[in-house]
Design brief:
This protein is of the alpha/beta class. The chain has helices at about 15-25, 50-60, 65-70, 95, 105-115, 160-170, and strands at about 5-10, 30-35, 45-50, 75-80, 85-90, 100-105, 120-125, 130-135, 135-140, 145-150, 150-155. The relative contact order is 0.21. It binds flavin-adenine dinucleotide (FAD). Flavin-adenine dinucleotide binds near residues 15 and 156.
Length: about 210
């Protein structure tokens, strides 16, 4: 008897949900993605994709297109915020890792992952409100009153995951007391200040 392909429901169409959908489809597994947002917007700022992540993007088939719009910095660099002192620098050439280190706008990564999926499998305006596991699989219910079924569900609904709380119980993230502010702006606003090869498409010189 032919083996039935499992049907997977993914809750959340962020980076994790879209990447999971793309990779599962690569191995022939049927997926449906349910996202609470009514539509996608260009939110976020810069996102770093280290070589391991870029290996995955290559497998999904979006790396070449992302390379055309992303920065390929020379290194991963940590500085002291107020003095600029370099604390650590890791060169990240593609030749060393077999995949590049790319920096891009988060929205570009999201769009690239979304572009690999047939639009009809990504359902927006579907806020999950209920999940029922039974011997036949999983039943899902949404805030708009609709329902869906699947053999299994993948929770990709972010840091405040409802699926996670339904399965393992309520939990709170632990704040470690560190906050990072991020922004994307045109380098012409630096008044001639040089940020060096670690954050530009520059050459191999280290530091500022
Ligand atoms: C500005 C910014 C910059 C960042 N930069 C970096 C970086 O440089 N490097 C790095 O590694 N990480 C970075 N991050 C973090 C990284 O983007 C997150 O780790 C990543 O987005 C988490 O992906 P995710 O798919 O798990 O969750 P999310 O991206 O949070 O996606 C969760 C999705 O689930 C949906 N959802 C939630 N609840 C429900 C529900 N009940 N029903 C249906 N849908 C639901 C949400 O609407 C959302 O679309 C950055 C994040 C931000 C905001």
């Amino acid at each position: 008897m032919a083996k039935r392909t499992p049907k997977i429901a993914i809750i959340g169409a962020g980076m994790g949900g879209l990447a999971a959908a793309a990779t599962l489809r690569k191995v022939g597994i049927e997926v449906q993605v349910y996202e609470q947002a009514a539509k996608f917007a260009r939110v976020g700022a810069g996102i770093q994709m280290l070589p391991n992540s870029c290996h995955v993007l290559k497998g999904i088939g979006v790396l070449d297109d992302l390379k055309k719009i992303a920065f390929e910095p020379y290194s991963h660099l940590n500085r002291v915020w107020d003095t600029g002192e370099i604390k650590r620098e890791l060169p990240m050439p593609e030749s060393l890792y077999g995949a590049p280190f790319l920096c891009m706008h988060r929205a570009d990564l999201h769009e690239a992952l979304y572009s690999t999926l047939p639009p009809e499998i990504v359902h927006t305006g579907k806020k999950l409100t209920g999940l029922d596991q039974n011997s036949g699989g999983v039943s899902l219910s949404f805030a708009d009153g609709t329902t869906a079924t699947a053999d299994a569900v993948i929770a990709a609904d972010g840091v405040h995951s409802l699926v996670r709380s339904m399965i393992v119980g309520p939990d709170k993230p632990i704040h470690k007391g560190r906050i990072a502010y991020r922004a994307v702006f045109d380098s012409s606003l630096m008044n001639g200040g040089k940020i060096g090869a670690s954050r530009t498409n520059g050459g191999a010189s280290i530091g500022i």
